[in-house]
Design brief:
The protein is an alpha+beta fold. About 35% of the residues lie in helices and about 20% in strands. The protein is built from 3 helices and 4 strands.
């Protein structure tokens, strides 16, 4: 799968186990992504809130070429990665 860092925006918190799982998933598959730590940077947290009507800080949230995935499992990630290639 070939993606650039700008194709995948990953909002999460480095200390979150779900975030770590998704990061490992991408790294094991050599898929580039841009990570935004919403606990370390308030601007990133605000960007994430703006993705949801209720303005919740829902993480991990992964955007793949415009498709928003909230707390996706491995199968969901594979599905959307193959669709967005």
């Amino acid at each position: 799968m070939s993606f650039s860092k700008k194709d995948i925006q990953f909002y999460g918190a480095a200390r979150c186990h779900k975030t770590q799982h998704n990061m490992n998933f991408f790294q094991e598959k050599n898929i580039l992504f841009t990570f935004f730590d919403v606990k370390e940077n308030e601007d990133y947290a605000e960007e994430l809130r703006n993705l949801y009507e209720n303005r919740s800080l829902n993480f991990p949230t992964i955007m793949i070429k415009g498709k928003k995935l909230r707390n996706p499992n491995d199968n969901e990630l594979l599905k959307w990665l193959s669709k967005k290639q």
